[in-house]
């Protein structure tokens, strides 16, 4: 199994440790940027270059029968959905093969024989937009539901308002805040002491941190903290 983690908040390390503890050999691959930052800005030529590099680097791994696990939904979406659309010819065929081997950490971890400590409060789940568009939020819910005594609440809050780098632009600041303040931020501010806020997307976690006192965690970090 090959993982493609990010270094943010060490959730890549947490995912690796969960997988290794359950007997899976993990190798970290570094194929380069998925191209999502360029896609989000409409820079498709630059995105195509990144997609080509990523596909060429991952294809030999997939050919050997390995899975590619992603911790960040936007990166998964770029490789699984956008790369096959951006590339042509033989590279497009390779991109489709690579896409078929890609999944989230939560999809894979939900199938593991996890032995977890119970939690006292609610687990509030905020799904990433790309994750929801791919129909993969159910895998995260399934994984979190494996936690004893877990009361998993899908906040169904829509977009967090950050939308990649959108919320960091000065001209977008107010609308980004307004979007977050529709459902997500009120839910974060009303958490009790035992509640846990889970958000797979790094931009979502930053938005929550910047506009409230709450701290959201990646599912891998929560699962690792509860392992027997």
- Apparent shape: flat
Q: How widely separated are the two ends? A: 23 Å
What is the strand content?
Answer: 5-15%
Structural Rg: 18 Å
Strand elements, count: 8
Strand order of the largest sheet: 2-1-3-4
Sheet with the most strands?
Answer: 4 strands, parallel
What oligomerization state is this entry in? Answer: single chain
Order of helices and strands: EHEHHEHHEHEHHEHHEHEH
Descriptive notes:
- With 228 residues, the chain is α/β, with parallel strands linked by helices.
- The chain contains twelve helices and eight strands.
- It has helices at 11-21, 36-40, 44-63, 73-86, 89-100, 105-109, 129-133, 137-144, 173-180, 184-189, 202-211, 219-226, and strands spanning 2-4, 27-28, 68-70, 102-104, 122-125, 151-154, 196-198, 216-217.
- The strands form two sheets. A four-stranded parallel β-sheet has the order 2-1-3-4, with helices on both faces.
- Helix 3 (44-63) packs across helix 4 and helix 3 packs across helix 5 (89-100).
What labels would you give this structure?
four-stranded parallel β-sheet, 8 strands, 12 helices, 228 residues, disordered N terminus, alpha/beta, 11% strand, single chain
Task: Compile the SSE list and pairings.
Elements (H helix, E strand, L loop, with lengths): L1 E3 L6 H11 L5 E2 L7 H5 L3 H20 L4 E3 L2 H14 L2 H12 L1 E3 H5 L12 E4 L3 H5 L3 H8 L6 E4 L18 H8 L3 H6 L6 E3 L3 H10 L4 E2 L1 H8 L2
Helix pairs in contact: 1-12, 3-4, 3-5, 4-5
């Amino acid at each position: 199994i090959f993982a493609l983690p990010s270094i943010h908040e060490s959730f890549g390390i947490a995912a690796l440790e969960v997988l290794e503890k359950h007997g899976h050999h993990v190798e970290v691959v570094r194929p380069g940027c998925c191209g999502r930052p360029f896609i989000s800005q409409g820079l498709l030529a630059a995105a195509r270059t990144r997609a080509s590099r990523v596909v060429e680097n991952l294809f030999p791994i997939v050919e050997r029968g390995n899975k590619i696990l992603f911790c960040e939904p936007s990166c998964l979406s770029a490789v699984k959905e956008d790369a096959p659309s951006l590339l042509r010819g033989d590279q497009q065929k390779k991109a489709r093969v690579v896409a078929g081997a890609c999944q989230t950490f939560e999809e894979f971890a939900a199938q593991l024989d996890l032995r977890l400590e119970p939690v006292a409060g609610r687990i509030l789940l905020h799904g990433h937009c790309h994750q929801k568009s791919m129909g993969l939020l159910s895998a995260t819910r399934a994984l979190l539901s494996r936690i004893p005594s877990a009361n998993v609440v899908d906040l169904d809050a829509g977009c967090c308002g950050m939308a990649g780098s959108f919320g960091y632009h000065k001209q977008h600041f107010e609308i980004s805040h307004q979007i977050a303040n529709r459902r997500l931020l009120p839910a974060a501010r009303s958490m009790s002491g035992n509640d846990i806020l889970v958000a797979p997307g790094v931009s979502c976690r930053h938005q929550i941190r910047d506009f409230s006192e709450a701290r959201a965690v990646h599912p891998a970090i929560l699962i690792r903290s509860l392992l027997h």
